Amino acid sequence: MKIIIAAFLALVLSVSALRAADQARDAHDHGHQHEHTAPHGGTLVVLGEEFAHLELVLDPGAGSLTGYILDGEAENAVRIGQEYIEIIIDESVPPGRGAERSEYALTLKAVSNVLTGETAGDTSEFAVQSDKLKGVRKFDAVISAVNIKGQTFRNVGFRFPEGNE
Fold first, then answer.
1. Same domain, 154 and 134
2. Total domains, the chain
3. What are residue 80's DSSP bridge partners?
4. What domain range includes position 7?
5. Are 13 and 77 members of one domain?
6. Residue 100 has what pLDDT?
7. Does 131 fall in a domain?
């Protein structure tokens, strides 16, 4: 009988120790920020609670902005049915270029890709070229609306190049 009681107490202590270790590991994990790497070297904008991402790549020399719809881990392309994504840009204007701030809308249009089979209305890539983006390196922006896998994300604000993660 003493052996059974001793074995039972050993089991209870082992289970308690394992639970305490799990709780300590969970608390440690919550203290670290979950980060992703942009696969195209751009800026990540998180959509929802890590539901998806929009990666934005700016070429200030050409005045082009390309957006890629990515999964929640920012690793895989996600095709969506939209023909365009509108982004409202609120840029700080350098002195000597006029007004203090400049706000304008950009329409990133769906990009077809023969190699991947992506077409307008079934693509993960969107792009725009605008002379307003030439020389621009930072701005505040709002994504008007994007629908990914049945979820619509509206008025998603972010700073470029920081993102919103």
1. yes
2. 2
3. 123
4. 1-32
5. no
6. 59
7. yes
For residue 6, tell me if it sits in a domain: yes
Q: What is the CATH number of the domain that holds 132?
A: 2.60.40
Helix (H) or strand (E) holding 27, with range, is helix 2-30
pLDDT in tens, 38-69: 999 999 999 999 999 999 999 999 999 999 99
Q: Which amino acid is at 151?
A: Q
Long-range contacts, 138-142 (Cβ 8 Å, 24+): 138/91, 138/92, 139/89, 139/90, 139/91, 139/92, 140/89, 140/90, 140/91, 141/87, 141/88, 141/89, 141/90, 142/87, 142/88, 142/90
pTM of the model: 0.75
| Co-location of 48 and 27 in the same domain | no
Strand order in the sheet with 84-92: 43-47, 52-59, 64-71, 125-129, 101-110, 84-92, 139-148, 151-160
- Tokens matching residue 3: 């052996």
Average pLDDT rounded to a whole number, residues 119-125: 95
* Higher per-residue pLDDT: 124 or 95: 124
Decide: helix, strand or coil at residue 1.
coil
